[in-house]
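Write out this protein's structure.
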Amino acid sequence: MTTMADAETLSPETIAARVRELGPWFHNLDLKGVRTAPDHFLGDYPSVKFANFAHAIPADLTGKTVLDVGCNAGYYSFKLAERGAAVLAIDMDDHYLRQARWAAEQLDPDARVEFRRMTVYDLAHEHEQFDLILFLGVLYHLRHPLLAIDAVAERLRGTMIFQTLTMPGGKQLDLPDDLSIDDREQLTRPGWPRAAFIERSLAGDPTNWWAPNDACVQAMLRSAGLCVTGMAGHEIYVCQPDPDADHGRAARIAELRAATGC
């Protein structure tokens, strides 16, 4: 394994060769001027996404803890480590974790980021609380989205930046506290919280399972005891715990524990 001192002496040619060995990359990292995904179909990704919500995160994160769910090659983790945070970055893909751990030798000189192979559901077995959680581009890849949100919400003591693919939908309705079984026609109204289930594939990806509308995203977050305090960009929600409105917590936690065996 390359040490941090060795990493400082790596030539651009050596870095470029290693980048090719570890490819393909989804995160376009800048390693001494060598880009890992310079021809990304989304442009300079995820820098272009980070620009949408970077302002919603304190510039100084010294002494703060961050959880990056679905960290990929670690772009966001490295950016928040630069701001002084201690970061736990989790992913289930060994390919991306290999990239992230090697890139850390170049981008994380103070070893502020810990990369760990974990699912989002494994968080139900953890006890650490985080000041900031990034939950970006993950939900629609999960077969059990509410369970995942519940598991993440239990680890949050501060702010969560949440992003997901959404589908078009009308302005949110004022939802009734209860709905008669004979009044289910309301469920078809524009603006009712709903999520489209993708049985086969979307954009060539068979792990794209869900496309909720905006009303559904906000309702799911509320049902996990969270309050949406703002929008940091398109499909990017800023959330915080809302214990005073979390009336369903006991039943939700019981189901989370039963499903995850914790």
